[in-house]
Design goal:
Helix content: 25-40%
Radius of gyration: 23 Å
Number of strands: 20
Bound molecules: flavin-adenine dinucleotide
Number of helices: 16
Structural class: alpha+beta
Strand content: 15-25%
Largest sheet: 10 strands, mixed
Shape: globular
Distance between the termini: 39 Å
């Protein structure tokens, strides 16, 4: 993917696009893949970098949602379990099975969770990831050696999926681009255009790098801006009734030694009635999450002190070695795009919603990462009807996602790149300096930064360290130390000077401080 070429295609187009998408998270990128794979012409604009919003800040689970089962939302669980299976089938380099243990400290927990998780297995049907079963106390401790053994009675093991959210997003972008879509990061939509009858027929955007305005004509404009959904709806109709509420969830990242093995811990009921996961991810342990209502969405939400304390406190009850603030390598925060309801944000449905405003603006929101494909299918079906676009069936059920590789286990830290890993290794082989690790605490090598700039539309140090690699999310202090070498590599690739390097280091360091708990 080349930004200059994408921009040139956007400027040169004189015909209306079939679909213009605002928002480059899981939802918007899913729509781009679906529409482009059906042969429709597609352009997508993202205000910042792809995945800057919620889609890089999830718990990293591809799951049916055990919690939604408890809420009785069987259709949502079934649909998500099916999507979980399709995603593993289409992106085996990115989606892996993961064993979760629910530890039992009361007599009623084994039968209660045991039966619930058998139902979860049943609902998955042919898309199952493995059968759940009851564990003895010894078996539970074998899987989770760090677990508090006092009063432990046993556990239940079940299976779900795990992934790297920002990496999947970039591979979705590459899949959409492979099918002809034009994707522009750092291009916020600044307004909507209308035809003589007042229907939305395009948008205006600004290329943040050059400052130039871009006008995009489109038969259908899709609003996929997550927690910013109402901002775009208000561009079409300032009086539109708000659709969204927002809540934030934080995650704390620790050394892997807190978990020891490859099994995740699932706490089905915390003191505030939520679910808490501690999962192994990229050689670390990630604990989360919380659910705190937020008034005004921002792109860089901050954790509340109480949220940090809550996770530390809950984790401490389950681990022999209680994690402390000093053990936190990074904290990251995501905002949930929730569709309005009456009760608590944690009780609001995770179903997706498609909304057509009187202006013809098509909004898709809600849902979850796991269901992005199904959401996109639904959205493009609506777009075809609404915009009288050439009709064709959805092709994504069996569409391989960029990087598809059945077995990437021999690729070490480059496994998430799937089939692209060989090309990154070739870069490192051609120039030995690029084989160097960027920091001893993390596996990333210099060639990954070069690859990100050349092929994955990375434009800044933050793009490379937060989303093309996951350094910032894994170890904020190490990421700060990586800023200088990454800035130099990017400057060489993008033709930037020393003052750009200095500004990049300064901006990234300031941002990364927010990912530290001091
Ligand atoms: C804490 C937390 C944990 C989660 N864990 C999981 C999980 O484990 N599994 C799971 O399946 N789901 C999970 N989810 C849900 C999932 O992450 C979200 O449903 C999904 O990422 C939402 O994607 P989105 O594209 O709708 O929003 P976003 O990713 O936020 O994308 C919206 C994009 O729109 C852009 N934008 C805004 N305004 C404009 C504009 N004017 N012009 C252009 N672009 C604009 C933003 O910059 C942003 O990138 C979690 C959510 C949270 C908050």
């Amino acid at each position: 993917m080349r930004r200059e070429e994408m921009l040139a295609r956007a400027h040169a187009r004189t015909e209306p696009w079939d679909i213009a998408i605002i928002g480059g998270g899981a939802t918007g990128m899913g729509v781009a893949v679906d529409a482009a794979a059906r042969g429709l012409s597609v352009v997508l604009v993202e205000a910042h970098d792809f995945g800057k919003g919620t889609s890089s800040r999830s718990t990293k689970l591809v799951h049916g949602g055990v919690r939604y089962l408890e809420q009785g939302n069987i259709p949502l669980v079934m649909s998500a379990l099916k999507e979980r299976g399709l995603l593993r089938q289409n992106a085996p380099h990115l989606v892996h099975d993961l064993a979760f243990v629910v530890p039992n400290y009361s007599w009623w927990e084994a039968p209660f969770y045991g039966i619930g998780l058998k139902l979860y297995d049943m609902l998955a049907g042919k898309y199952g990831f493995g059968a759940s079963k009851l564990l003895s106390k010894e078996e539970t401790l074998e899987r989770l050696p760090g677990l508090e053994p006092d009063e432990l009675r046993g556990g239940v093991v079940y299976y779900d999926g795990q992934f790297d959210d920002a990496r999947l997003l970039i591979h979705l972008a590459m899949t959409a681009a492979d099918h002809g879509a034009v994707l522009l990061n750092y291009c916020p939509a600044t307004g909507l255009t209308r035809d003589v009858e007042g229907y939305v027929n395009g948008l205006t955007a600004r290329d943040e790098e050059s400052g130039h305005a871009i006008t995009i004509q489109a038969r259908i404009v899709v609003n996929a801006t997550g927690v910013f959904t109402d901002n775009i709806r208000h561009m079409a109709d300032p009086a539109a009734e708000p659709l969204m509420v927002t809540s934030q969830g934080i995650h704390l990242v620790f050394e892997r030694s807190f978990l020891h093995g490859d099994t995740a811990l699932m706490v089905p009921k915390t003191s505030d009635g939520r679910v808490l996961f501690v999962i192994p991810w990229h050689g670390h342990a990630v604990a989360g999450t919380t659910d705190t209502p937020v008034d005004e969405p921002t792109l860089e939400p901050r954790p509340y002190e109480e949220e940090i304390e809550f996770i530390l406190d809950t984790a401490s009850r389950f681990f022999v070695r209680p994690p402390t603030r000093a053990d936190v390598l990074a904290v990251y925060v995501g905002l949930r795009p929730l569709v309005k309801g009456d009760g608590k944000t944690s009780a609001l449905s995770r179903d997706h919603v498609i909304h057509v405003d009187t202006s013809g603006l098509l909004t898709i929101t809600g849902g979850k990462w796991t269901t992005y494909r199904h959401m996109a299918e639904d959205c493009v079906d609506h777009a075809i009807t609404l915009g009288k676009l050439p009709d064709s069936d959805c092709r994504t059920k069996n569409l391989r996602i960029h990087g598809y590789l059945e077995d990437s286990s021999s690729l070490g830290g480059l496994d998430v790149y799937g089939s692209d890993a060989q090309r990154i290794l070739a870069l490192a082989a051609a120039e030995p300096a690029l084989a160097a690790q960027l920091h001893p605490a993390l596996p990333y090598i210099a060639a990954e930064a070069v690859w990100a700039a050349r092929e994955e539309l990375a434009r800044s140090v933050e793009d490379v360290l937060a989303r093309r690699t996951r350094a910032l999310f894994l170890n904020a202090r190490a990421a700060i130390a990586m800023a200088e070498p990454v800035a130099k590599l990017l400057a060489a690739e993008l033709g930037r000077d020393q003052s750009w390097i200095d500004t990049q280091i300064e901006q990234f360091t300031e941002l990364a401080q927010q990912y530290r708990v001091v």
